[in-house]
Sequence to fold (358 residues):
Amino acid sequence: MFDVLMICPTSSQPRFHKRAVQLAKCKTVKALAFSRGLYEESCFGPEIEFFTLGKIQDGNYSKRLITLFKAIFTIRKVARKSKKVMYYAFSLDCLIIAKLAGLTSGFYEIGDLRISHKSNWLFSKLEKYLLLSTNGVIITSEYFYEGYFKNKKIERDFFHVIENKLSYDYFNGRRPKQETLFPTQKIRIGVVGLLRYEKPLTMLIKFVNKHPDKFSLDCYGDGTCKELFIKHSSKSICYHGSFKYPEQIMPIYRSIDISFVVYDSSSPNVKLALPNKLYESAFFGVPLICASDTALESNVERMRIGTGISIESQDIFEQGMLSILSIDTLREYRENCFNVEEKDLIDHGHLVVEKLFR
Fold:
C-alpha cells in the first residue's frame, strides 16, 4: 500500500477538493497546497489531511522562490512519514517541486494549458520531458490532446480524460426542478467564478450601463478583475464577493437568468478548455454565453444551451448580446438545459483514478 501526496498550486480550487475525495475512496490522501489569497472560504474537507506550503504572492519573485524551496522540504518531511508514496500534481510548477522533493512516481493533472502563442522550443522540450517522467497525465478536456499534445507526438493512451463535471458526492440527486418563468422586468446576467479576463468583462459592464432598464449584472467571485465591478457598482451592477463552493453555488444560479462565460479566445487554453461552467449551467438550468471560435462554443451549441459571442469590438459584442438576450431565446435554452441528462453532468472521475492507482 502507498499514500498519495496531492501537490496543489492553490488550496481553494474546487476541482482539487473533488479529486482528493475521489482518491480518498481508494488511497490515503495527504493534500499539500499553496495559498494565494483567493477564495479562502473554499478548502479541503476534514476527511483530507492538509499541509500548507506557504503563501505565494503574484509578482514578488524573490519571496516566491523562497516559498518554493521551503515547499520542497515540507513535501520531503511529509513523504518520510509514509512507507511509500506517489504524487498527484496539479500544475507544472507542482510537478517540478514533486520531482525536486525526490518523488519519482505519480500522475499529473492539467485543467488549464499554461501556454501562449509565444511559448518557445525550450519550454516545449522541458514540458514533454516532464510529462513523460510521470506515470500518466489526466486532462479535463479531450481537446487538450487533439489541439496541443498530439503535436508533441505523445501517445494518446498516455492521457486520461476526467471532465470537470459536478461532484458526485455533493450534487448527485440534487438537481433543481425545471422552471421556465423569467422576471418580467430585467434579465439578470451573472458572472460566476474566477475574474481574470478584463476585455470581455469591461465590454459587459459597458453594455449593461448602456441598457440599465433591460439588464442587470450580478458578479460572484474573486480575482484580478474584481475591482472592475466594485468601481462600476450601481443599481444595475452588483459585486457580491467570493463564495464557498459547493455550498453556495446553487442559490447563486437561482439568482441569475444567464451565465456570462466569455473569456479571451486569443489564449490557446480558452480555445481548447471545457470549464466547469458548461456542466453547471446545464445542471442548474441556466443558459450561458461563451467566446466564439472555442471548443466550449462547439459543445454549448451542440447541447443547444447557449451560444458564442465575438469580442472583436464593442459594437459587434453589443449586437450579439442584444440578439441573444430575449425572453423567448432564454426560455428555449433553459428547456434544453434540462434535456441534458443528469448522469452526463456528474463527475465519475473516481472510476478513472481508482484504475490509475490500483
About this structure: The chain has two domains: 3-171+346-356, 187-343. The chain has 15 helices and 15 strands. The radius of gyration is 21 Å. The chain has a mean pLDDT of 94.
